[in-house]
Amino acid sequence: MKKILLTTIILLLIAGCESKQDWRAELEKVNKQEEIRMAESKAKIRAYIKDSYSIQNGFSTKEEALLAFLKEVQSSSKPELSSIFTFAEQETVVFPNTLGYGTSLDATPLEDYKKLIQNRQDLGIERLRKTIKGKSLSIKKIVWEKPRTYNKILGHKPGSLEILVNGKPINIDQVKMVFEVNGKFKTGVIAP
Q1: For the chain, what is the radius of gyration of the CA atoms?
Q2: What angle do CA 123, 124, 128 make, to 5 degrees?
Q3: Is the pLDDT of residue 62 over 60?
Q4: What's the pLDDT tens digit per position in 135-185?
Q5: 188 near 155, Cβ under 8 Å?
Q6: Quick one: CA torsion of 150, 186, 94, 123, rounded to 10 degrees?
Q7: What is the DSSP letter of 99?
Q8: Entry pTM
Q9: What CA–CA distance (Å, rounded) separates 16 from 68?
Q10: SS (H, E, C) 9-37
Q11: Residue 71: pLDDT above 80?
């Protein structure tokens, strides 16, 4: 009886050690796959690095870009807005210039990052639509933080933004960045 119990315990210990090693091997395999995905993502983004960039539907000033975006959000229920960076522009203009600047793009595979950005943007726009319902809209006051240089583009972050909707003042914080590309401005980062 003691021999059976001892044999059973030894077998369980051996099986437990093997499964622990299998678990570690599987984790190592997953880590390698993620490292490969990250390397492929960074290579794809770096392929878009250029000396100069251009954007469609850019505006002359950051205030004009911001106001156009807010008015488009207020007046349109379409999911695609012309006053913000398209996903193609983000991938070919914004991402190559912001890679390596401490954003989650540095540690997230490109496809996962695009989904994250899309979800955050959708939530931010949805929240804005609820906040700025009305007929008239104007910017009352913007306090801009110091511009940030991201390689060939500049980022302008509104530190505080107060707008008037139907004459009523509202503070909003969903607009996180307006980018300047070769003297043209466009709203670039929206989040809840």
Answers
A1: 25
A2: 115
A3: yes
A4: 889 999 999 999 999 999 999 999 999 999 999 999 999 999 999 999 999
A5: yes
A6: 120
A7: T
A8: 0.82
A9: 62
A10: HHHHHHHHHHHHHHHHHHHHHHHHHHHHH
A11: yes
Q: Count CA atoms closer than 13 A to 123's CA, side-chain side.
A: 9
Inter-residue contact 142 to 63 (CB < 8 Å): yes
Sequence-distant (≥ 6) Cβ neighbours of residue 66 within 8 angstroms: 139, 142, 158, 161, 175, 178, 187
Distance CA 29, CA 27 (A): 5
Q: Please, what is the average pLDDT of the chain?
A: 89
Helix intervals (H) in the chain: 2-46, 62-75, 87-89, 95-98, 110-131
**Cα–chain-centroid distance for residue 125?**
14
Identify the residue whose tokens are 């960074």.
Answer: 42
Q: What is the pLDDT of residues 73-91, one digit of tens each?
A: 999 888 789 999 999 999 9
Tokens representing 132?
A: 């700025």
Neighbours of 86 (CB within 10 A): 16
Which contacts of 73-81 are long-range, i.e. CB under 8 A and separated by 24 or more positions?
A: 73/125, 73/128, 73/129, 73/132, 74/129, 74/132, 74/133, 74/134, 74/137, 74/165, 77/129, 79/122, 81/125
Angstrom distance (rounded) from CA 192 to CA 190 = 7
Location of structure tokens 């943007």: 121
